Amino acid sequence: MSTSPTLSMKALNRITLDRQLLLRRGELSPLAAIRHLTGLQAQAADAPYLGLAARLSRFTQDDLTSLLYGRQAVRASVLRGTLHLVASADYRWLRPLMQPVLARGRQAAFGRVTAGVDLAELTGTARRLLTGRVLTRPQLGRMLAERWPGVPPQALGWSAQALLPLVHVPPQGTWGRGGATPFALAEEWLDEPMEAEPPVERMIRRYLAAFGPAGVMDVQAWSGLTRLREVMARMDLRPFRDEHGRELFDLPDAPPPPDPGTPAPARFLPEFDNLMVAYADRTRIMTDEHRRRVCVGAMVAATILVDGTVHGTWNLAAGRLAVQPFTPLTPRAEAELTEEAGRLLDFAGAHDLRFLPPV
């Protein structure tokens, strides 16, 4: 019989919120917070800004924009092969670790239409085209199509992005700036090479520091990597069990857990927030029913947290913040959300708050 300590769902929730800087706002610098979280998902340009605003006591839009222009943080495809904002120092080892994930995604999406393309030649040609300049993916795809005229330019552009370490160049990707984003070769932009053989154990420790305690399947869901069970079995990790007997692991020097009865403040998390997709089993943060409403296909809705769990979604458009609860809110919950919404409205330069009827 296992002697691993059992963590209640409430305890697991509060530990997670604490490590995610959501139980109380952190005093970290924005760059330190990005490193602690190992990145923020960034398919939407504003999402990393909103994610940091929800987690830090002092944070402005200029704080993150300056990190991007200063090349201390970059926007690029890493975890799960999706677009994230990460510290530049972390990109140098995360991107090589994610190469199998990116290659697998490229093969699934474009393997058939690029079957006759020599991928080593494609990688070399794309590198030459990007050396000393920046190009959008459509521009790069059209240039590559001159060499492979029978292959869709879109497939060639995406393939190059999966095969080469590329970063997005500002101002696209900064607050309010979406659209087609120019790429640069990461090693040119950062003036440093990628790490040759980064240890996967580093990634696992970083994940547990921000998302643990968690199971093997959780780490794999967050990263996109597979076959991590043997790796984690070799590591010096502290074992736990959840209420359902599922095996969890944590760092042996993890900080003391908060009291499970600690009140959890209301929070607005942006679309694609990593907390919503960081686990195979997400019941520590939302019910399975709510998960089906938040995670629809490739989309992950912006969410409201009440008492530490998802209670609805929100949308900010034309200066107006609309809150869509899944169930009726208590007067206390609505008051907490109203106060938190004031911070969000000030940060985003918006002016109006509306609570929609529960659905």
Annotate the secondary structure layout.
Blueprint (H helix, E strand, L loop, with lengths): L5 E2 L1 H11 L10 H8 L2 E2 L5 H7 L7 H9 L3 E5 L5 E5 H10 L1 H12 L8 H12 L4 E2 H9 L7 H11 L2 E3 L13 E4 H5 L9 H12 L4 H8 L5 H6 L3 E5 L4 E4 L16 E3 L18 H7 E2 L2 E2 L2 E4 L2 E9 L2 E6 L5 H18 L3 E4 L4
Parallel strand pairs: 1-8, 15-16
Antiparallel strand pairs: 2-4, 3-4, 5-7, 6-7, 8-9, 10-13, 11-12, 13-14, 14-15
Helix pairs in contact: 6-9, 7-9, 8-9
Organism: Planobispora rosea
Protein name: Winged helix DNA-binding domain-containing protein
Pfam families: AlkZ-like (PF06224)
Summarize it:
By secondary structure, the chain is an alpha+beta fold. It is built from 15 helices and 16 strands. The longest helix has 18 residues.
Textual characterization of the structure:
- This protein has 359 residues and is of the alpha+beta class.
- Among the domains are: 23-190, no CATH class; 286-355, no CATH class.
- Helices cover 40% and strands 17% of the residues.
- The protein has helices at residues 9-19, 30-37, 47-53, 61-69, 88-97, 99-110, 119-130, 137-145, 153-163, 186-190, 200-211, 216-223, 229-234, 288-294, 331-348; strands at residues 6-7, 40-41, 73-77, 83-87, 135-136, 166-168, 182-185, 238-242, 247-250, 267-269, 295-296, 299-300, 303-306, 309-317, 320-325, 352-355.
- The strands form 5 sheets. The chain has a 5-stranded mixed sheet, with helices on one face. Strands 1-8-9 form a 3-stranded mixed sheet.
- InterPro entries: AlkZ-like.
- It comes from Planobispora rosea.
- This is Winged helix DNA-binding domain-containing protein.
